[in-house]
Every structure is written in C-alpha cells, then in structure tokens.
Amino acid sequence: MQRILYSLSGASGQHYSPHVWKIIMSLKHKGLAFDLKPVSFGDISSIEDGSYNSVPVLNDQGTLLGDSFEIAQYLETTYNDTPSLFDGDGGLHLSRFVESYCKTVLHPTLAVIAVMDMYNIMSDADRAYFRTAREKRFGKSLEDVYANRDAELATLPEKLNPVRDLLATQDWLGGEKAMHADYVLFGTLQWCNVCCADPFFAATDPVQMWFERMLDLHDGVGRKAVSEAVAA
Amino acid sequence: MQRILYSLSGASGQHYSPHVWKIIMSLKHKGLAFDLKPVSFGDISSIEDGSYNSVPVLNDQGTLLGDSFEIAQYLETTYNDTPSLFDGDGGLHLSRFVESYCKTVLHPTLAVIAVMDMYNIMSDADRAYFRTAREKRFGKSLEDVYANRDAELATLPEKLNPVRDLLATQDWLGGEKAMHADYVLFGTLQWCNVCCADPFFAATDPVQMWFERMLDLHDGVGRKAVSEAVAA
Question: Would you say domain A3-78 falls under CATH 3.40.30.10?
C-alpha cells in the first residue's frame, strides 16, 4: 500500500491547485512520503472510487479522503507522533478562520487575476472544460473577466493587510514555526505563483518575505513545479 | 490586594472601549472577580503608576499590565488552572490573526460609523479631547467624518464575510466554545453596540446570531452597560 495525492496539473505538469498545495505542504510537514499523481479536469471523476469531483484526493494506504481541511485533520489525528499541524484544538478551530479568510477575501480576486494564466498552462481538453465552467460561473467570457485583472490586482495589497499586520509581530501565522494555517494561505498564493509570471508584492513587503520563507521550507518544495521534483 | 480593570466610560458610565471588553470577557471566562473602574480620557495618564496612555490597564493584585493581548496572555499563563483562552499555542498565535483582522479590516470602518455616537455619550471634557484628537487623525471635522457613515456602513457586511463563512461550520471562532478570539471580535463589535442605537446586521445574519450568543455568555455581562452591573 502506498500514499497517493492526486493533483490538478497543467499541460507541462505544473501543480497549480491551491488546495493540493495545502496538502503537499502538510504531508511534508509531517514527514510523510507520497506519490504526486497529476490529473486533468477530465480525470477527476475517475480518481480511485470515482466519488470525487474536485482535488485534492488522498489515498492514504487505502483510506480515501477529499477536502483539504478534512485531510489535514485526518493527518493530524492519524500521525499524531509527527510535528503538529495545529498545535492544539484552538489552532485547529482558528485555522478554519484563515481558510474562510482565504476563501472569501482572496480567492474571488485571485480567480480573476489568474484566469488567463491558468488557461494558458492547461492542456487543450482542460481549456475547453475550464472555459465552459468558468464562463458559466462568471456570466461572461474569460477575456471579459481578464479585462478586470488590473482593477482586481490593485485591490490585492489591501486585502492582505491582516496578514501584513500579523507578520509585524511573528514570522509565521503559526508563531515561531509554520503550521497548517500558513499552508492554507501559502496554497492560495502559490496557485498564482505557479501560473503567473510576475510576483504580486514588492520584495520588501512582509507578505512577500513570508512567501519566500514558505518557498524555502521542506527543501524548497514550493519552488519545484513538476510531479517528480515535488514528491521526491 | 485586589484586581482592578480600568475602562474608558461615557458620561453615564457606559463601557465602550473594544479593547476593555476583550478583557472583561476574558476575566469572566476564567472566573476571576474584578472591580471595573470607569475612567475618562483625562484620567488615563494618572492610572496607577502613570505610565499608560490607553486602556485597558489591569492591576492584578499588584501586577500592572496594559495592552489587551498581553493581558490575555498573562491571564492564560498565571491562571492556568482555569478555562483556557487559547486552547494551545496554535490558538494563541492564530488569535493574533483575528486581532489583526479586526484592527485592519473592521476598526477603520467602525471608527467612522460610530464617531458621532461615541462623541454623544462622552462627558464634555472627553468630547473636547476626542474632537481634537480625532479631527487631527482624520484630517477633517467629526461632522465631515460622519458624512461618510452610510457609505462605510454599506461596506460592513462584506467585511464580515470571513466570519460568516466560518460560522457556517462552527458556532464559535473557538469551535464548540468561545475563546479569546471570540472576545477579540466581540469587543470590536460591542464597541458600536454600546454606542449606537441600531444593530448593524439582520437578526437572521449568522454574525448577528453569534453576537447574540456572545451577549448571553457569562450571565449576559455584554448586555449590561454600567460598572457595577458588569463587575458584579
């Protein structure tokens, strides 16, 4: 039995799902080896028992799990002799607040900012799926969504103000070390880091300095783009 | 020796400092009795040893502390046989993120919304101090600040989206029970609840439903307005 993490990937194997990155980092945090298996949108419905419609999906030696937060909770409980992802119940519950912040404040903006960069790294089959699904969700063409990119990008620095304020007093969301809450925010920003050419923040911005520290963690796994390098 | 919490108060004794409410709730959470001593802006510089320029200030049987987060940490460490405010180190560090969210996202908006209501409950001496200090900070008259009240109020529901999203899966920020992070957000909103006539959210809004649960906690201390009732 082995451990397999299924990950949505671009045509050249780039892992760009924010939710998968949360689990890549959490598995590394706990020192758990895994195979990272790239999938396309079209593959998702046939992962394992066919019951999943999104990634990540983790097959942990026969135990199947979806939803990144549930996976993190499972890893914390199952591998309780490895470094903690939450540092106690308070950390578990408040990590959900970080998840809610990323979901409601950052994701809607990043979904606009990254829309064409995501499209451009996909296979032809995924492009067709993505265009149909996203144009339905947005109610307009990808190109019309992209027309708002600069306006959305201009709102991004202010939306990170809570993080910037926190980083004035501690190096990680988890205090003196990274924890799952860091990986939740990292995954969110890594999504765009993998897809988009330019960084969003100045090199001296505390958010960018934290992001660079995150990229250095776990043998710099966040700086690697393709499956073999990530899971190695 | 006794325990004294100094609290900025209106002319009729209304406690409206967000940061003091964080500590009122945290002391109640830990079952620690205290005297609540109302002060005006003019009184702050002569609290205890005269070294403080803001509230809360806590005199805990001779130990003096300012800054609400430092007080919460002190209470957690000193009274470690009472109910926890953080539920572990992870909860402590991520409570700071909730603090940063309140400070950077909610406070600037609430400071505009509540500006005239705060002014109206103050003593004449505090009104003069407040007008000078706030007009300098805002760079315009209180009345001109107040002119933006409706515009700021319109932004408030969206700014609570991370909280609303979290409350879809758990009753408290702390999970199955309130913790310091709940008190941080509660204090922020209680500031306006004490000053302003009308609630900001519909009765069916999960944020308002959580706020009502908070008002019920600890014998409904949040529903009480004056010193004797609060500390009793």
Answer: yes
